[in-house]
Amino acid sequence: MFWQGNVACAEAAVKAGCRFFAGYPITPASEIAERMAQILPEVHGIFMQMEDEIAAINAIIGASWAGAKSMTATSGPGFSLMQEGIGYAFMTETPCVIVVVQRLGPATGQASKGGQGNFMQARWGTHGDYSAIVLSPNSAQEMFDLTVEAFNLSEKYRTPVILLADELSAHIVEPVKIPERIVVVDRRKARDHSEPFFGSSDPKGIPPMPEVGEGLNILVTGSTHDEWGYRYTSDPDVHRKLVTRIYWKIEGNVRDIADYEADIDEKAKVGIVSYGCSSRTVYEAIDRLRGRGIRVSHLRFRTLWPFPDWIVEELAEKVNVILVPELSLGQFCREVERAAHGKARIISITKIGGGEMITPKEIIEVVERI
Amino acid sequence: MKHFAVKYLREEKLPTPFCPGCGNGILMNAFFKAVEELGYRDLRDFVFCSGIGCAAWIPSPHFMADSIHTLHGRAIPVATGIKLMKPHLKVVVIGGDGDLAGIGLSHLIHAARRNIGLTVIMVNNMIYGMTGGQVAPTTPRGIKTTTTPKGNLEDPIDVARILVEAGAPYVAKWTTYHVISLKNSIKKALRKKGFTYIEVVSQCPTSYGRNAGFKNPSEMLKWFKENSITYEKAKKMGRDIWKKKIVVGEYVDIYRKELTERIRMEDLDYEN
To answer: In chain A, which residues have their Cβ closer than 8 Å to the Cβ of B131?
Structure first.
């Protein structure tokens, strides 16, 4: 298929089992909604354009409790509006997928221009303690592949998953290969009261999820709740138990969730760590550097959160310097620096404005100056 | 003998946490009477969605049913997601005026416009009760609240008439004094397929009554009785009557094809 990234995302969602989409128009994510409006009815799914992004996130939460795999797609301003709802999905352990096509902010910023300024927001956007799964594609193909992965992780860990795309991977038109066999994971469903719906004896446990309308008398609340969903608004132990489990069910499985591309030259003294659209610049820079005999390693993350610390640390042990190119003023670099534990010098390469990419030349110049 | 409503309740969660004299109990009673008269032995066919506030705690956790206690103001979009996926369920939203007419008003209007088959019951106590008695968009002018210490300078919103204009096929408004009419409206709403809205003006003796000068809950009920007129009468009177009185009755009861039916039939007809 010769698809735009946003189209690949919508097609993949339906193949992963998505049957409910609620959204609100926003550049540069609108094509996902437009494609969903076409293809969801063909599989008896529901497409709904809501009155705002707040309604959209809450509608997909409702649909998820009615048993559907559900999704919304937005960009910076809409993602900001959705944050309270995303927190509700974390707290109630509601699987759903939120696609965020990053543009330039803050506020309205430059609506049609790409950026990578939502890296921290994707992890820390809503209040309270939780851990988030965030994936990031760098091509139309990965808009397809990682959308499927986002649904699978969401169902497996019973949690919202954020697909943090950017304007480039969303709007680029590229060949997309649909795998012959697509692995689809479905949530573990509660069919009776033999296991609690919101608790587990395992501190990293993922409880089975019931569905409304099946006579199970389920209680769902965004307030602190016990393992059967009863509200406890002041008990310290109930809160601790719930929130630490919600945190550790993700953080404790970071190695299962981590997905990355490692192009490691064991003798290289220069490393580059990147994600999303910036990584495409790095590919070109590395080709040219290696062509000139300069040895470089490259790590490119598909999983941004939980952050795969150990992979960065391993690279930092091998190289002297790590370059971190990104289209924001150092959000991603801050995390790389933390994970490197001082074992390598970190150089941040940043650019914002107008959707301009960092050029291979700019990366090469930094390498030459080292 | 057990009270007739116990079968619809999680008995171990009783009594409710509501203040003595609160109108929430009157609504619960009217709701269960309606459900019983309609022949429901239990609440298996229902899903309740509520937001934040005292009225949101009516179903959650007290009703023996599926119940989703959502964010402040967001019960309607959550209910919309459920209804779209499972149109055969009776999806009922119960909330207060702060929740539905304040922070969540746009969802209410859009649900009426879409004519999605939700039943929304708004308990209008004219105040933010749970947070300690702050002014609400429904507070009458002049009333003293904790955030209008000299009296409210704004006029209250008339949700029922807004929803009529938005296209809701069924809108009724009563007070906790009009319990029989309230029950009958709930029955009617639960039988109807489209979007249905019932407002019940209710007493909050703790956060509203005390500041507004009422000595006890029964004085408030008496005030509801004496200060309300019927919709039919109000229509024949001047514009000011809507500000001075609580206008009770059925504001509208018409047929419009419900949204999930339209989706199922791909019905693009402009009629109904």
So the answer is: none
